[in-house]
Amino acid sequence: MIIDSQIHVWWPNSPARPWPPGAVSLHGPSYTIEDAVAQIDTAGVKRAVLVPPSWTGIDNSYGIEAAQKHPGRFAVMGLFDHEAAGARESLKAWRKQPGMLGIRPVFANEKALRLLNDPANEWFWDICERDGIPLMCFIFGNLKRLDQIAQKHPGLKAVVDHAGRNPRGAKDEAAWADLPELLALARHPNISVKVSSLPCFTTQAYPYPNLHGPIKAIYDAFGPQRMMWGSDITRLTVPYMDNLRLFQEGLPFLSEDDKSWIMGRAVAKVCGWPL
User: Fold this and answer.
1) What is the DSSP letter of 191?
2) How far, CA to CA in Å, does 248 sit from each of 51, 244, 254, 261?
3) pLDDT in tens, 149-174
């Protein structure tokens, strides 16, 4: 079973369902539930983890709607406001929401960095560890801080999005300048890596030969049971099928069992989404 570990879905900005004032989409005017269904059906992908985009606000309702319309096909790693009223109580009941697997913290602004760095927010990591709430962390540039958190919370299930790369940063060899910091996280058995949207970090054509070395290094450090394929389709700079084929056909060091983990079993296991 192939599971795409990251797809954003969002509705068009309209009077009937407006975005927050001043919101600007980074990935186009919309990518609806129906668009996602058509995409994964065409590719033979059976499931997808939906990640609500930041520009529609901290609103997980559309992803939950998709999970309810298509049970077993979609599940959600939602956005969470740690500074909202009643945040602790909301977190304790997080996985009771329909289709909700966990949380996707986006450590890319001042507020989010307070969650990452302020000791007053230690309760967040405590509850996630205690209640088994998995996290998919958009955390480029802060991998050393995640290392510290993982050491303090050995039961916390955390996933590094996009192999810790900056989506709007360097490409080719320069994109992997801090790869040793990512590989150092492998010493924590509770840390996994999304090898998602990696063709965005190369200027080469399929099979993206200068990605093979970093992927092999991640494979050697983390192993296939802690690697998760994904697309981030609305930001992907190459055809969806080429991103899929990279892991199905383009990496000769992967066994068939390796592929079964990377293409689906790993994300299902870490996020508690039974196959």
Assistant:
1) E
2) 23, 6, 9, 12
3) 999 999 999 999 999 999 889 999 99
